[in-house]
Amino acid sequence: MPRRGRHRITGPIRLIALVAALLVCAAAVAFGGTASADGSGDDRGSATEQDSGSGENSLTGSDGDDGDNRAGTDGSDNRAGTDTSENTADDGEKTGGGDTTDGRKTTEGGGPGGQNDDRAQDGAAGDEEAADEQGDDEQFPGRDQAAPPSPDDFVDITDVAPGSGPDDKGGVFAGGTFTSQCGTSDHRNSDNYQAAPGKRNGAQHVHDYIGNTTTDAFSDDDSLAAGGTSCANGDRSTFYWPVVRDLNGAGDDANADGGGKDGNVGEILTPTSAQMTLHGHPGQETEPMPQNLRMITGDAKAETNGDENVVSKWTCSGFTDRTTEKYPICPSGSDLVRILDFPSCWDGENLRSNAENEAVVFPEADGRCADGRVAVPQLRMTLTYDQPAGREFALDTFPEQQHSPRTDHGNYQSLLTGEQARTAATCINTGRAC
């Protein structure tokens, strides 16, 4: 009986087995390498790091990232996206820190819809919020420079010499007066249709308005003419100025544009009185105020622009023979007073001043208008406040102006009717108080 032995493996079968073994080994090596690259490679941050912005390919990386950008334009890792924002695929979704293909989210732990999708979505929401903040910074610049007023911005009024103050920025009057009694505060916003027409929060600080009750970012001649007024005599003119705040108090706009977002904090103080009075010029007849003439006095960015257009005149009741560009510290029983004198020598043609035409300029030091200029009524705003003690108050300003008292300014557009304007000029020229 033949002996049983091992089956012999022929050459071709042995070759097939060897190839199969090699394929199995190659697959194992490939699987292990992929797992290492996706899950624990040293060249990537963890999912948590990437979601928080600390990984090399984080969502908050700069435009100069080393990320691969095949179809994008911003230097981020974006293969199929065309948006210029970082790590944004063509469907607008944010990635979780990895590459994007076909606009789908990918995560370190797996493919689309993997276990890190929630964190990727959280990261996307955070990025959108950061983008909004960045957009605000571009639209409303200087917010990172906001700061409270300096101690050097204050002076004891008793240390100010009598007769001080600028002598070339209005305030030399003659003849009678015409006053519009318009209250102390009709409404507030952080717009300025004269300097930033059509832009909400164009001032980045809050204005107090009296007179025309409709004034906002979108005001124009027609809308103002159709608006109501807080003035007892029917004057539809608009008068406005930046508010003063008590720094000890809490404002209701701490998280609002123009308020806390722009560095203006504290409780807004309503003036105890606000006088809007038109005056005359020494030795010159005053012509009726042109309807729709717009005027600005002062420079809201004086700390940046310099001294040329500073008109700040601060004082205290009982000490009005002394004015200063600084915030005055008033003694007990004395009120804080702001004086804003407006230019009053018109070119006879333009109703809006700009750098080219200077439609309205200040009189000479003697109060007279230079030859070729029309003397129109000189507007003086006088604002009085119950002053907080010491240095605990400040003017609203653009954030980078850091509440400098030298940035004080005011805005005016005359909407006196022809009859009202003629009456005002007659009262001034005949020495009457109207």
Automatic annotation (TrEMBL):
Residues of the signal peptide: 1-30
Location of the region described as Disordered in the Swiss-Prot/TrEMBL record: 34-202
Coiled-coil features, chain-numbered ranges: none
Compositionally biased tracts (Basic and acidic residues): 91-107
Keyword Signal found: yes
UniProtKB keywords: Signal
Chain intervals with Acidic residues compositional bias: 125-139
Domain DUF1996: 197-389
Biased composition (Polar residues): 49-61
Taxonomy, superkingdom: Bacteria
Record-given protein name: DUF1996 domain-containing protein
Organism listed in the record: Pseudonocardia ammonioxydans
